[in-house]
Amino acid sequence: MRSLTKVYTITEYGGFARGGLPFGNYQPLPERTFDALESFILANHSESETEAVELLSLSVRRGLGKIITARNYVGLITMKDGTVIEILPKIYGDVTQADTKRIFLEMLRTLKDVSFKEFNVSDLKTDRMNLLEIFISMFVAEVAVLVKQGLKSTYNSVEDNERFFKGKLNVPQNIKLNYVSKERFYVRYDEWSINRPENRLLKATLDFLRKQSSDNSNRHSISRLLTYFESVPASLHSETDFSKCSNDRSLSHYQKALSWCKVFLRGNSFTAFAGSEVAVALLFPMEKVFESYIAAKLRRFISPEVELRTQDARYSLFDRPARAFNLRPDIVLKDQDDIIVMDTKWKILSENVRNFGISQADMYQMYAYSKKYGANKITLLYPQPGSLRGTDISFFSDDGVNVEVAFVDLLRPDESIQALV
Q1: Global pTM?
Q2: What angle do CA 256, 257, 262 make, to 5 degrees?
Q3: Per-residue model confidence as pLDDT tens digits over 151-187
Q4: CA distances for 364 relative to 123, 202, 309, 317, 361, angstroms
């Protein structure tokens, strides 16, 4: 019987202390697990100021010792000893942990190149499953669809000493091996089988996840699916097999499942992460997740004649030299009469800090957008904080620039988005 996986769950801005007792937003983490997580952070730290990857921050606090704090990335980290660390987004309002997971998964569905765009989040048991088990169940569902449709086969070249003659006789090998045993034939022939790189990768991933999963339903489903792969060896060299995967249209329905294979067999997603003690790291930058989510929601409510662009790069701050200091607003809405420029910010504003916590750099940016785009409306968009509900925030300049600050209530996002357009 497999022992239950130990799951540690924190939200953004919470963290872990090395051993000890709970303190504030910091949970105690066993020393060995803390040290493995520390190694993971150090292995993925960037010294470049322009390309800083702050998955988690490592520091020392008086009375606590070493602490690890969640920052810009959310998702999960699975250690090779089976420990699962969940990092959930900070969502304000009357939300349970299950609600937070559901909202997070709905947001993830909008990202480009993710493997679960069409997955029905409402079908997931977010109240009892950790994120790892949820992602495993998504992969299992994709493989179940492939099995139902029928696994693809291909011709494989086989050389063997057979009892029956078929294909072509390999004369030198036949003389060498069967000079005495005349009842055998050393032959070369093509065999129609499901032993192809795509299926080898699927089997390797199923084998891997059966060891990782502690959920009985997932483990039962994986075991059942593996019976369809009995004649296929699991991939021993995944990168080689990934390079051999066919781009043929007849295999397009394999792409989602193979995307999951890359996630699990390479142990990373979205960004490449290193770490010798980490089995799987599924971490997502919430800035990009929030931006993608808002753009997807806007597309549902804007009129057909309105053009929506994300990460628009048509303008730069200066014209000479060419393309000097590119401007790249998150969202631009344009029709015949109006231009609306929006920047999304995954940050909780507060009435208790100067300018509500809006950074000066962000305002410089919005000012530049207004001038270059000649926009009718400039909006900074944040998740709804509890303390500013119902508060109108705008900034005006004497030369006609007006920046509005708007909020999206993630518990009722459609109402918030409709109000913007």
Answers
A1: 0.81
A2: 95
A3: 987 766 777 777 777 777 777 887 777 766 777 877 7
A4: 44, 49, 21, 11, 5
DSSP, residue by residue, 174-219: HHHHHSS-TT-EEEEEEEEES-SHHHHHHHHHHHHHHHH---HHHH
Which residue has tokens 């349970």?
Answer: 96
The C-alpha atoms of residue 230 and residue 139 are separated, in whole angstroms, by 19
Count of CB atoms situated within 10 Å of the CB of 88:
21
CATH class of this structure's domain 302-420 = alpha beta
Q: Say which amino acid occupies 160.
A: D
**Residue 125: what residue type?**
K
Site of tokens 């000479």: 320
State which amino acid sits at residue 62: R
| Domain residue ranges of the chain, discontinuous segments joined by + | 1-96+272-284, 154-193, 302-420
Tokens of 154: 């291909």
If you ran DSSP here, which 8-state letter would residue 354 be given? G
Q: What is the pLDDT of residues 283-334, one digit of tens each?
A: 888 999 999 999 999 999 998 899 999 999 888 888 888 778 889 999 999 9
